[in-house]
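Troubleshooting: if your tokenizer reports a length mismatch, compare against these two reference records.
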Amino acid sequence: MAGHENGHDWVEYWRDAGGRPVEAMRAHFTRHVFHRHSHDAYSFAVTESGAQRFTCRGAGHTSGAGMVMAFNPDDPHDGESALESGFTYRIVHIGEQVVRDVLADAGDLESGRVAMPLFDQPVRVDPPLGRALLRLHHTLVAGQGQAATLAREERLTVAVLAVVRRGATHGPRLATPARRAAEASVARRAAALLAEAGPAKVTTARLVDEAGCSRFALYRAFQATYGMAPSDYQRLLRLRAARRLLADGLPPAGAATEAGFADQSHLHRWFVRCYGVTPARYQRAARG
């Protein structure tokens, strides 16, 4: 686990040493403002003290002490303190495959009762769910050893089943009209090109050509599907690539270059804005 303090703000970060997509963070922020971003994992958090406000899925939300937050993979959101005194919270990021494995092991996927879950309420008041998430967080960042490993697996299962069975919807969020389906198809083609390009530059003209529509139509479709502009999505993909490179041991300067950032300071600035922790601190947590 790695941590740091910066004035009144501090962060502790933990990442599964075995390489599974399971991470945990505890932080206190008074001045930090999260840039609009998303994660490629489910994210579940409990506000311990204070209050934070954020926008997600087109609406503003506030999470006060004891409240639970749930974000789907690729749910764009931002965040900042709602109080001058700041807020403290614990958050766990759990990869989709881990959630799928837990649900399959519990029989939920096989029975057809639950497809991959969606959470339509970013904030909820649910004390039992909050306690399950806090127990998981405490176990994740605790000591090593066989007993600790067993406890982590048990509490991971309990927490995943709790959030799915207590807070997930079991179907699509909204009916998809023909126009929305067409926009999603356009956006997916553009997103696939951005993912394939990796760190290479992609011009608007190339995106428009791939999507087969006008610039305005592409921007509108991308905003509707991913909640952000193509340029923001490209930067997000580069940040995710940098996280993987840092976890693999590449120094921040090298990770910045490989992921397509202008330099290390460029990566540092956006990493902190979106994740609340520096690349170096994240790497120390990722490397155990």
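Reference record two:
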Amino acid sequence: MRSPKSYTKEDVVEINCHGGIQATRKVLDLVIENGARLAEPGEFTKRAFLNGRLDLSQAEAVLDTIRAKTEGSLKVALKQLEGGLSKDVNKLIDKLADITADIEVSIDFPDEDIKLKDKVKLTGEAVSVLNGIKELIDSYGKGMVMREGVLAIICGKPNVGKSSLMNLLLKRDRVIVSPIPGTTRDAVEEMIDIDGIPIRLVDTAGIGAPKDPLSKKSANKTRGYMDMADIALLVLDGSHKIDTKDREIFRLVKGKKKIVIINKSDLGNKVSGPELDKLSVGSETLEISVKKNINITFLEKKISGLIWGGSFNQGESPTVANARHKESLDKAYRCVLSVVGALKIGSYPELVAVDLKEAIFDLGLITGRSVSEDILNRIFAKFCIGK
């Protein structure tokens, strides 16, 4: 493949091997004997960046595309790979560069009576950039959800239908189900996709009075997952009244985002009433029947809504899903905030220019306009060989 039309913008030779792994290894050994070497992690994408095929945020999106856990996370990664984030960041950099040019005129030609652009207008332009940076920062929470997923635990006392619910949400029999209380002795974790959101769903052992050392270990592990969980699916047996064990579990997940699930609704509802209202205040409540498959689709919608706290157009607008980008945006935001304050009080233009240049530098770190070799090495070290 002749440059510059290859991925790296360099001349590339690709060898396709017939047969199994042994034939491939023999060909690889022969190529290395004749002067080739194994690629370093991420070397092809790094070359693509260095040769101008991709900017740095697009290069990072290659890895996010490979690691995407759901269709939703893939859409977010592809939007960045297409240059959606880069376009927004470059617009902000260009606006800051224009403001800097106006500021530096007054610094470079103080005796030429060249008037600074109307201060109010200049401040308005800086505020516009500030709002643009803030919008990208605000997308980070949802971006990280799409990239890393959400930890959701199914919790409750023994024999309320937690494992059956897990199997139903997974749409396969992953967990052993039995009418015998305490069948699940260890936490079972699986990845599921609900409305494009990657969710690490954990079925935990029922919390009750430990009868043996193993039950005690299971209960401690369940409590550990409760501490780490982003959301809790608290399952109650609707055919029995709320008891001390249920109250204890409510206490353990207090303050967490949660959905109170009243299972076995086909057997009647004995838990609804003032006590449930008090225990579940601020939480979603839903009656379901795992056995009859009642309201499971509605439960999935409630889980999605609980995570987003509203709507989220996956991949339709640039979304920040990288901690490095978030750090650079935070630094740039503080600098531009300082610029706005300085312009309002009429501070020295030299001080304003310093903050403007720092903000441009920080935003440039996202796209690779201003980046060190050390940062590049750390970014591409996360890639697998051959990418």
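Descriptive notes for reference record two:
- The CA atoms of residues 7 and 48 lie 6 Å apart.
- The longest strand covers residues 188-194.
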